[in-house]
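Reviewers asked in the last cycle whether our approach scales beyond single polypeptides. To address this, we selected a multi-component target totalling 600 residues and predicted its structure end to end. The input consisted of the following lines:
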Amino acid sequence: MKNNYLEISQVGIEFPTEGEPFRALQNVNLSIAKGEFISLIGHSGCGKSTVLNIVAGLYAATEGGVILEGREVDEPGPDRAVVFQNHALLPWLTVYQNVELAVKCVFKKSKTKAEMRDWIEHNLSLVHMDHALHKLPSELSGGMKQRVGIARCLAMQPKVLLMDEPFGALDALTRAHLQDSLMDIQQQLGNTVIMITHDVDEAVLLSDRIVMMTNGPAASIGEVLAIELPRPRDRVVLADDPDFNNYRQQVLRFLYEKQKNPAAKAA
Amino acid sequence: MKAIPIMPKIAQCSALLTFANLRLLIDKTIKTLALPGFGILVFLLLWQLVANNIITSLGQFPGPNQVWEQSNTLLAEHQRERGKEASFYERQQQRNAKKLAKNPDAVVKIRAYTGKATFVDQIGTSLLTVAFGFMVATLVAVPLGIICGLSETVYRCVNPIIQTFKPVSPLAWLPLVTMVVSALYVSDDPFFEKAFLTSAFTVALCCLWPTVVNTIVGVASIDRDLINVSRVLQLSTAVHIRKIVIPSAIPMIFTGLRLSLATGWMVLIAAEMLAQNPGLGKFIWDEFQNGSSNSLGRIMAAVLVIGVIGFILDSLMLTVQKRVSWDKQAILR
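The resulting structure, written as structure tokens, was:
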């Protein structure tokens, strides 16, 4: 497996402010292999989302750049689909139509109408939402909406799936269900994923590598932890697993000893 | 909203009309019929009381009773006028038929009836005028609002102009519009009357602004995530506007349209009054100049009709708004 499917090199970004420009990121370097599941973890305000947005092409880096499969990222595109924290479904379209909008954009030339319909239904069944094709987002629970958001991104067959705290707004049980679904899907399809999270257990359970970020301003990558737990992973079994707990501890130590929460320090 | 399903349910199991259902039904009746009815009754009583104490140079200020009488008179006048019109055409036809019977080559003249416009005719004219003016305003305001909402640059250029013209009274526009229409709309066989165009454009100029301003706000406040979805999907500008911008902004656009229509209706009456363009405004002015003992009653009848029509127009807009709005949870009033 080559390690440079997605290359983030020397990325830094400054945001203009009234006074001096605010430097959010500096010297961010990361190489990601195809099919790898990466978690970005760090305290609020450390620039995790900014990294994700730069990979998505929604922000332009001030210096450095991102190369995906040999091509530089300079604008947003469907090959880097983003799952937003608050699902970002169009509230006036049904579940089916939301996915259809994405599918029509990506496959308007390569798929016939019937193929598109099958493809939309296939992706919705992957996230177990095929029972609610013609419901509006407002008729769904938070977890269901996020499932549809994930289906919309999967249906775009992205090279990288970018997830911005995808389960942050959900309750613990729903979150666990969705994490399991996501693990299944990733096992099946072999997607390359970058996920932002605040949740240490989630990061250890899902990731191949956890990227821990230092506190901002001028945040960077502090440590990278490879998680070598065999897949498929079972959360119940892992709860007692010494390796799992060891990984957990390493992340916790980074977050709460090496990089104390700036907000907590102020308090 | 929540109470609506109760009615069919009661119809379904009327045999099982339970005490609880009955209470809900009574509650609903009180809320939708009894309370508004009570309000109107109190208003009528107060009106009568106050009217009794006001003596004008045209006699006593009309109470509900006189206004009711005058409304009936107005309707009767309308029917009489229609009758006259019908018999005029009948006579004309008979005359022409006789002429042709005598001499098949005779040139027959067909004249249009030129009777006085009745109260009902004036209502029709006013409605047509406001509809036309409002349509013109909407066709300009919604696209303009979308462009300004999408582009900060355009907004900065256009905003001072919008803010300057927004507070201008219709009466200030009227002379200018009149002269411009007279100068530019020159036609031997005009499809629209000049007076109609003058009123309609004055209405359009005044009811443009609420729609423009609300559309701008609606478009500018689209959820950032949805814009990012559009960017990730690389939607073209046209698709972006059609699929994301317009549906997002629809609730605000309709808020604007409702304000615009209400403004337009108010402006129209003033414009018709001042410019002597046909319509309800002219009716009121004519009655005022007439100065008979019935005038005040007739004017009051017109005032009520204007109010009721405004109410109906707004209800129509509200119905449309509810149909096209995706946010079924939002409480619209």
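The interface with chain B takes residues 56-58, 75-78, 80-82, 84, 86, 88, 90-92, 101-102, 105-106, 136, 138, 156 of chain A (CB under 8 Å). We regard this as preliminary and will revisit it once experimental data from Aim 1 are available.
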